[in-house]
Design a protein that fits this description.
heterodimer; A: about 290 residues; alpha/beta; TIM Barrel; 9-stranded parallel beta sheet; 9 strands; globular; disordered N terminus; B: about 400 residues; 6-stranded mixed beta sheet; 4-stranded antiparallel beta sheet; 16 helices; about 40% helix
């Protein structure tokens, strides 16, 4: 690679450009979460390469971790499959660099836990992530109280640091949570782990309105969204719809008895993405402000 | 690193002990973690909280625990004078009750109506189940499947006490996985649930408040040794998994310059085999379960499995204050293998009529190593933090005995 993709249109800029484009088109973003390296590196790379054409507007790439404390069984097991297949943070970054050879528009956000980054070293990680064409980070165990660890250096390096806001994030706390957030805000629709609950569109609409009083950033909603119907409901009240466990589950169901990829694995994931994208596109969007 | 004026002022406002500690927790939990800190500060400022806690510690748990001169072991080693702080005599059989009483009183002040806990050996689980029964709150205890298997008596005890025991089948199926699962429960039921963490780890303020509740061990020991010997001990020894019994004994002595302090980690099959639970000796700093501390991990930051004969020490991390005390050199961290601990377990049973838990058997193994070469007027205080009834099945199996 001769130029750092983030220097011109990467990082924050790529995420901003994507949401600007979607605003013009009058629709919400479909944000697809898959676990990097699940079920193996080659299949995972094919899935990532195919997602943009299958309707994914932003790709969230899970960084496998042995102890994912905020995740339910599906994502825990997906992480272990990926680790068994030999995934490392460095290999994930290399996979994204490959993706960037063909796609300079689709934002890629890494999601996971802090320790693998801590182990690599924050400066080394940020340099490598920027060079690979990573646009943002969602780190579950780094609340605003720990911003000096990674959030501020990441912003300095031109990456977005996308914060999670939750039903327990009260009015008193929202300003602090929004302070160093960039790219978009990820609203967690229920208190709990991934894959365990269901997002309720009315409750989410109220929460989104509450958060909008504290930020101009787009608000994507995740946790508990599995079907095109649900995606449609959330897309009518939020700027983005994040789906994770449902992708992990269709991928898992496509594997053979030994947990290896089959001929249907890539398509199973991409088909779900197309269905969800159709759901998102069919939403009745509120009028743009 | 320059020597601080006091080793007892931590953590700072951000929950740090040097680079260790902190609040590495999911946003869902953060408001509650901050609320817990406020509630703890209010409790500290309220004399009636301390009075209530002291009442239960004395009348329910049986404190103070004796400081016992282990005369036959002293004679056997022929060197230093060995004292045991007998926290295995507490109600429920270990030091864990000290912390559980403190935390459940806090839970009540906060209006929480449900208790969760994690457990390794089952001692913390039993203590949590006990205080939950005492105050009539429902309690769910998470325990790794491997530990459920090797600690059956404690599993049954918890059930008798009315708690639900949930076997955890993810990961290595031991203490760290029980912690993950307890955190998942907590994230899901954050509004009504209080998480009684069993050791000096987790997001701030847990390491601080568990230390404070356990410091009764060191406070008593200090008073007792002054009465028995007219002076402070030369050496303190305690075993370390997460490190709550050790921190409880050590903390009141940290600023007493003449007192050498030694924490003993579990070396499992031996540090060189890689099959151990010695986070300081064999790990490096990382972030897990809400704090930065020494962790057993691979090059890519994946947590590796700990190994110890003792379920209570079988954890790939250590409390952040221990990590800092290691960095500044105030406490020395050494280790003892499964085999050393097993030998100490049998020796103590035969020579003192005290069946120690496998956890303090590690501390005793270290005492056995150093005591013979020390002068007869050298005083060692070791924390006998738990009794060994729960371990007889594990030990019988190791010795090839069928019971």
């Amino acid at each position: 690679m001769t130029t750092a993709p983030n220097s011109k249109n990467g990082g924050r800029a790529r995420i901003e450009a994507r949401f600007a484009k979607l605003r013009d088109e009058g629709r919400a973003a479909l944000v697809t979460y898959i676990m990097s390296g699940d079920p193996d590196l080659e299949t995972s790379a094919k899935i990532i390469a195919g997602l943009p054409a299958a309707g994914a507007d932003i790709i969230e790439l899970g960084m496998a971790f042995t102890d994912p404390m905020a995740d339910g069984p599906s994502i825990q097991v997906a992480g272990l499959r990926a680790l068994d297949a030999g995934i490392t943070l460095k290999k994930t970054l290399a996979m994204v660099a490959d993706f960037r050879q063909h796609d300079m528009e689709t934002p890629i956000v890494l999601m996971g836990y802090y320790n693998p980054i801590h182990a690599m070293g924050v400066p080394e990680f940020l340099a490598a992530a920027s060079a690979s064409g990573i646009d943002g980070l969602i780190i579950v165990d780094l609340p605003p109280e720990e911003d000096a660890e990674l959030c501020l250096p990441a912003l300095e390096a031109g990456l977005s640091f996308i914060r999670l806001a939750t039903p327990t994030t009260d009015e008193k706390r929202l300003p602090a949570v929004m302070a160093n957030t960039s790219g978009f805000v990820y609203y967690v629709s229920y208190a709990g782990i991934t894959g365990a609950g269901s997002a309720d569109a009315d409750t989410v609409a109220a929460a989104v309105a509450r958060i909008q009083e504290h930020t101009d950033l787009p608000i994507a909603v995740g946790f508990g969204i599995r079907t095109p119907e649900q995606a449609k409901g959330i897309a009518s009240v939020a700027d983005g719809v994040v789906v994770g466990t449902a992708f992990i589950d269709v991928l898992r169901d496509s594997l053979d008895a030994a947990g290896k990829a089959t001929a249907t694995t890539v398509d199973a994931v991409l088909d779900l993405s197309r269905d969800l994208a159709a759901g998102v596109a069919s939403a009745n969007r509120r009028a743009a402000p | 690193m320059s020597k601080p004026n006091s080793y007892r002022t931590g953590p700072d406002a951000g929950g740090r002990f040097g680079i260790h500690g902190g609040r590495f927790a999911a946003e869902t939990l953060m408001p509650l973690i901050l609320e817990l800190e406020d509630a703890y500060r209010a409790a500290q400022a309220d004399p009636s909280f301390r009075e209530e806690l002291d009442y239960y510690l004395a009348q329910y748990a049986g404190r103070p625990s004796p400081l016992y001169f282990a005369e036959r072991l002293t004679e056997h080693f022929g060197g230093a004078k060995i004292y045991f702080k007998r926290d295995e005599l507490n109600h429920t059989g270990s030091h864990k009750i000290n912390n559980c009483l403190g935390q459940i009183l806090l839970a009540r002040r906060m209006g929480k109506t449900r208790i969760i806990a994690e457990t390794g050996a089952g001692q913390h689980g039993v203590a949590s189940a006990t205080v939950s029964a005492l105050f009539g709150l429902p309690c769910t205890v998470y325990m790794g499947e491997v530990d459920v298997e090797r600690q059956q008596p404690n599993v049954f005890r918890m059930k008798l006490l009315g708690s639900e025991v949930v076997p955890v089948s993810s990961g290595s199926r031991t203490l760290k996985d029980a912690l993950n699962e307890a955190i998942r429960d907590w994230v899901t039921n954050v509004a009504d649930t209080f998480y009684i963490i069993g050791t000096v780890a987790g997001p701030h303020p847990y390491p601080e408040l568990v230390r404070d509740f356990q410091s009764v061990i060191g406070d008593e020991a200090k008073e007792q040794i002054l009465k028995a010997e007219g002076r402070l001990p030369d050496t303190l020894v305690a075993c370390i998994g997460g490190g709550s019994n050790a921190m409880g004994l050590f903390h009141p002595f940290l600023d007493d310059d003449g007192v050498e302090i030694i924490g003993v980690e579990a070396a499992g099959d031996g540090i060189e085999t890689g099959r151990h639970a010695a986070s300081i000796t064999g790990g490096r700093p990382g972030v897990l379960h809400g704090n930065r501390t020494y962790l057993l991990q691979d090059e890519d930051g994946q947590i590796t499995e700990a190994h110890s004969i003792s379920a209570g020490l079988d954890y790939p991390g250590i409390g952040p204050e221990h990590a800092w005390l290691n960095d500044v050199g105030r406490v020395k961290y050494d280790s003892a293998t499964d085999a050393d601990a097993l030998a100490a377990f049998q020796m103590c049973s035969k020579l003192e009529g005290i069946i120690p838990a496998l956890e303090p058997s590690h501390a005793l193994a270290h005492v056995a190593k150093i005591a013979p070469d020390l002068p007869k007027d050298h005083i060692i205080v070791m924390n006998m933090c738990g009794r060994g009834d729960k371990d007889i099945f594990t030990v019988a199996e190791m010795l090839g005995v069928k019971i």
